[in-house]
Amino acid sequence: MSIVILFVDTSEEKVSTERRFDKGLTISQLKYKLEPITGIPSSTQLIELYQGNNLLGSLDDEDKMLGAYPVEDYMRLHVKDTNPHRIRNQYTDVSLVEKFELTEDEYQKRSDTVRAFKERNKLGRFSDEAAAKEEAIELSYKEAIKNMKIGDRCEVTGDDQSIKRLGTVRYIGETKFQPGLWVGVQYDEPLGKNDGSVQGERYFTCPKNYGGFVRPTKITIGDFPEEDILMSDDDLEEM
Asked: What stretches of 102-165 show up as alpha helix (H) in DSSP?
């Protein structure tokens, strides 16, 4: 028995693998062996033999043995599908797989989910410690908005504490995009991410990219005069 080591690939299913084949196989038998590897039915296979990137020819005589062709170790068999109606990538394209989906409400009602298990056993974000931490955060938000009102000038501090933006408070309250309290800010400069609306829900109105939503604890209310970003260099030198 004479064995040859060949690479097998196909442009149909994006597979590439190294396999051993007996040179005594007929091309018809070879196609049956290639079917589970490539996902291409043996009846519609076209096998091309490559040495590197050079095409040596097609293995098109089903009665011939593989060894009758100039095959050597580490050459490549490229398998094409001659059926133009076959669904491409049906074994690797996950978008073709019908998915089982649940709405958030349906998921919450189920008792056999990871979330339900964690809730029953008070694990992760459902633990007493996590609940106490969440309650403390909500209290800090409520405390922060006590002396805050629409129209107040403010300074917004970024997560790294070094980035500060000036703006005006335009919204205070809960939102649909995330639970908890939020403050909608119209920035003095186009440093925001929206125009006062998020996911189709409008909370306030401002020019595009001037709006943003931050947690109340990121806001400092004060006498922050609006900067004139259109000042000339001479104006700046006089200040």
From this structure: 104-109, 114-121, 128-144
